[in-house]
Amino acid sequence: MENNLEPKPSLFKNWLSILGPGIITAALVFGPSKMTITSKMGADYGFALLWVVVVAIFFMMVFTNMAARIGIARDESLLTLIRQKFGKTTAIIIGLGIFLVATCFQSGNATGVSISVSEATGTNPKIWIIVFNVIGILLLFFKSFYALLEKLMLALIILMLFAFLSTAIMTKTSAQDFFLGFIPSLPPLSMGLIIAFTASCFSIVGAFYQSYLVQSRRKLSSNKQTSERQIVGSRIGIIILGIMSAAVMVCAANTLHPQGIKLSSAAEMGRALEPLLGSYASHLFFIGLFGASFSSLIGNAVLGGSLLGDTFGFGNNLNHPKVKLFISLVMI
């Protein structure tokens, strides 16, 4: 008797099909700029601004869910739907705008990667900017780039969670101070940081791209997930984004705020941890900075390049030669 039953996918593949799009969004949104802002919030105001994380994550989750539902419900891409509804000019303006936004973030992402590696190796950071941009471009030549992207982003998210949560635990947080931070308050001169964090965390561009990621995962997956499971996967990714943001803020609040240390970059946070907690904590933080920078370096390039391809009618298939060219342009 012929057996027509298909083998069940492994547990890892099943979870990856659910979590993949949300994980990629979390990884590309949580970059070195967000680390700098959250570090500064914790260093300047302690735990007082933890509530901002909850508010920003809530709105990010709402808009990500909206985009995911569009991706689930329709076969056409979001830019195609905009082109059909509002015209070609509107779609081009949005597509070019997103491409430029993604490109503008690349210098900060490349700098974050180079600093994190150069601090650990004692080498010239400029070398690592070239090395990791070349690595990013070479990744485009893998046969199934989206499948590779999911696995890479998942690995970097796990790396960041381990690094930031371990560092936060080492700082011995006061439970009372931690929970008081979720009560809304406005410390003097904090509004600028609140706006900056909300703008970087509540990423309309990242939420917009969620619809594309959901469609890419649907084309790749042999086991079709229910729409509710896909929405849950998107939510989990955004919750992880919030956990990482809170962990960095807690670390800065515990170590730098009591000392009155002011920061202007995430790299300064890593260096400041060494005399306070030892080289192990500093290295852990720089590992997290590497994960945040490299994931955003790749993620932003993929976002900008694929949407530019869709803008000019080449589609958003990550294996299309023109789309790969546009992704490479963002990295360069």
Q: Largest sheet at a glance?
A: none
Order of helices and strands: HHHHHHHHHHHHHH
CATH class: Mainly Alpha
Distance between the first and last residues' Cα = 57 Å
CATH topology: Hydantoin permease
Q: What is the rounded Rg? A: 20 Å
Task: Provide the β-strand percentage band.
Answer: under 5%
Estimate the global geometry from the Cα principal axes: globular
Poorly predicted runs of 5 or more residues: 1-6
Task: Assign the CATH superfamily.
Answer: Hydantoin permease
Give your account of this protein's structure.
The chain has 14 helices and no strands. The chain has 332 residues and is an all-alpha fold. It has one domain: Hydantoin permease (Orthogonal Bundle). The radius of gyration is 20 Å and the shape is globular.
Topology readout:
Elements: H1 11-29, H2 32-45, H3 50-73, H4 78-86, H5 88-121, H6 125-139, H7 145-170, H8 175-180, H9 191-201, H10 204-220, H11 227-255, H12 266-277, H13 279-311, H14 321-331
Short summary:
The chain has 332 residues and is an all-alpha fold. The chain has one domain: Hydantoin permease.
Tags for this model:
disordered N terminus; 14 helices; 332 residues; globular; 78% helix; mainly alpha; Hydantoin permease
